[in-house]
Amino acid sequence: MILDGLALSKEFRAELKVRVDNLRSKGIIPKLDVIVAAQDPASVSYVKMKHRWAEQIGMTGDSYEITDETTQEELIETIFKLNADSKVHGVLLQHPLPKHLDENAALLALGSAKDVDGITPASLGRLVAGLPGFRCATPLGITKILDHYKIDVTGKRALVIGRSHILGKPMALMLLERNATVTIAHSKTVDLADRCREADILVAAVGRAEMIKGDWIKPGAIVIDAGYNKVEGKTGDVGDVHFESAVEVAGAITPVPGGVGPMTVASLLSNAVDAAEKMVS
Ligand code: NAP
């Protein structure tokens, strides 16, 4: 079974549009602002797509471009300004920022109230503590895929490959919340292929093109490929999983593109709409 994240995101965005229309009828236009490194072409193109999808459902949003000349003080000033602006419901700090800037300090300054990407220490702490709050957009999108396809992870062995704070770690916690038995693998994991072969649910969040081959996968396993990798000589992005061999073995699999990516954006927008609705209630 192919887990079609693009089709699901279309349904999801149609539902979000109804909620946005409702907010607009009350004079509230959900606004998602983005802080993005102007010199990073991938980030700029992701952000353009996020704004385009937001506009399609009636939301609005501005981009604040960060350059090599932007100082840490200017960045923090921008964040405080957006925190204080009641017309802004969500703020996304698009990773990565230029190297001279302290991203953790920026995330601490953002706090949890408008962190619709769910990646600040405050939001991640809420996830660890099981408190309500914005959940990380990519793992949240993955849980929405699992729910839609009625994939129950309870008691199953889940392996998450990758331990970044925006993807691997929150994904593992969200699977744990759903009662999976979770292992996290990373670059120092020994015998990774064998660990993969034990997994009923395999989430690849590595950033290595087509690293996970079909013969690493347990027959019938659910394979979620969060990877987005550019490969020289290939147009478009490829995942962390070698799709052609994996699809022969897996019980269900997300394609790249058209799997996790669209549901990440839909989840980000959903969090932003939640934030706007909270301001009304
Ligand atoms: P990241 O911060 O670079 O983390 C990569 C993780 O993979 C690290 O924990 C690293 O281990 C681990 N790793 C690297 N090489 C490995 C290997 N050979 N074996 C096992 N583990 C290995 O990346 P990220 O930001 O989490 O992103 C991961 C992938 O997801 C990328 O392709 C990115 O483009 C994609 N992504 C997609 C979306 C989406 O919407 N679909 C959103 C965000 C990211 P160590 O910790 O030991 O270094």
The CATH superfamily name of the largest domain is NAD(P)-binding Rossmann-like Domain
Label the CATH architecture of the largest domain.
Answer: 3-Layer(aba) Sandwich
End-to-end Cα distance, whole Å, is 40 Å
Q: Whole-number average pLDDT?
A: 96
- Counting structural domains, the number is 2
Strand content: 5-15%
Task: Characterize the largest beta sheet: strand count, sense, and whether it forms a barrel.
Answer: 5 strands, parallel
Quick gist of this model?
This protein has 281 residues and is α/β, with parallel strands linked by helices. 43% of the residues lie in helices and 14% in strands.
Features:
Rossmann fold, alpha/beta, 10 helices, binds NADP nicotinamide-adenine-dinucleotide phosphate, single chain, globular, 2 domains, 43% helix, 281 residues
Describe this structure in words.
The protein has ten helices and ten strands. By secondary structure, it is an alpha/beta fold. The chain has two domains: 31-120, Leucine Dehydrogenase, chain A, domain 1 (Rossmann fold), CATH 3.40.50.10860; 137-260, NAD(P)-binding Rossmann-like Domain (Rossmann fold, 3-Layer(aba) Sandwich). The strands form three sheets. The protein has a five-stranded parallel β-sheet. The radius of gyration is 19 Å and the shape is globular. The N and C termini lie far apart (40 Å). The relative contact order is 0.16. The mean pLDDT is 96. NADP nicotinamide-adenine-dinucleotide phosphate is lined by residues 138, 161-164, 166-168, 185-189, 192, 205-208, 226-229, 260-261, 264.
